[in-house]
Amino acid sequence: MSDPFAPGFLERPYWWEAAPPPPPGSLPLPDAADAVIIGAGIAGLTTAIELGRNGVRALVLDREAIGWGASSRNGGALSGAGSLGKSRSDLVEAFGKDFVAELMEEGEQAFEDFEGFVAREGLECDYVRCGRFVGAHAPAALDGLKRRIDLINAAGGEEAFFVPRDRVGEEIATDRYFGGMLLRRAGSLHPAKYVRSLAAAAERLGATLMGGVEMRGYRREADGGFVVETSRGVLRTRRLMIATNGYTGGATPWHRRRLIPVASYMIATEELGEERVRQVMPQLRVYGDTKKVLYYFRPSPDHRRILFGGRASFVNADLRASGTTLHRYLTHLIPELRGVRVSHSWKGNVAFAFDMMPHLGEHEGVHYAMACNGSGVVTMTHLGTATARQMLGSANKPSAFARLPFPTRPLYTGHPWFLPVVGLSYQLKDRLDGWRVPKDAA
């Protein structure tokens, strides 16, 4: 297809049609706050909610509009421990059997807690527990999937199942996968509606949210508090938390050195109608696969479109180029969609840690929650809540993720110059496994 774009094509998130980020306000910056949170995405807003429930009024600052970043741009696919270690088959070797079991149990419990959190706060976000299918892109990936199934089931009951190749068609209309994994404990939501509802809940509980305010630095006082310098002035706080994830900048160099920001790209198709969507995704789940250059995709909440994402580029690509690439990937995976056009194309920054694990903790008095590694909705909701409890000193049991070391690499400053090389190696690995995407697939 020479032109994959529909009339009226937009270079902006599809999610923003229903829930655009609010324009930055003009509130004056206060002189002081009980707690200051930098970053108004899922982690920061969830932290503010838990603090508010315990009588601490947080001030949440963001350089952009509230919820502008990846929190309102992601695929809206949710799972528990099934997302942990998805790029590592050696979790037990790296961390030890007992500790991995603890991480997995916490990850599975995080999903259950998430469902309770949505209900308790009355969050309007189109949430549904729909399950997730992960396709094996090559025969060699099947053993790794089976190990993940065993690890997940050991943590929380029979919630993961192997799908043989002759039954893949029950999940998705493709012959590209050699089998797969079905996760029952998984779901979907509308991410921009979720962030909007989190913001409203935080404000109800006493938080002040200010977009368009950039933190430019901070220093610790002798009494243990902080002076925070911003683009709108200076304020003081007893508690400081960083929740900037894939948008972490030079004001917090310790955190930046431990994060690898990666642009993730998405497209939405034009309206297809629910019947056609069900033809290619009969169970209306969320979907992913085992490739190094992975795909993630799902129906829209109204089941009338398909949303498709992946690493369309390991350099900064314009949204028409990335949209063309993702359209090619989609129609190669599901040939029945050839001829379907793209209505929206967008991107957002996710953050990976060098150990591919989520992290929360405290460094020199500053709390943090970051490194969702591409699976952020449940993870960041859980990390934000756990961080608030850590800040309050009220956690009955510290999070296992707070006990993980947060590694960096010598000479790394937060600029991932190596991503193009990594991307080429990932593409080569997928091709050696037998995965091919013809350039004329669309």
From TrEMBL:
Keyword Amino-acid biosynthesis: no
Domain FAD dependent oxidoreductase: 34-389
Highest taxon above the source species: Bacteria
GO molecular function, one term: oxidoreductase activity
Gene Ontology cellular component annotations, sorted alphabetically: cytoplasm
Gene3D superfamilies: D-Amino Acid Oxidase, subunit A, domain 2 (3.30.9.10), FAD/NAD(P)-binding domain (3.50.50.60)
Keyword match Transport: no
Keyword tags: Oxidoreductase
InterPro entries in UniProt: FAD-dep_OxRdtase, FAD/NAD-bd_sf
Protein name: FAD-binding oxidoreductase
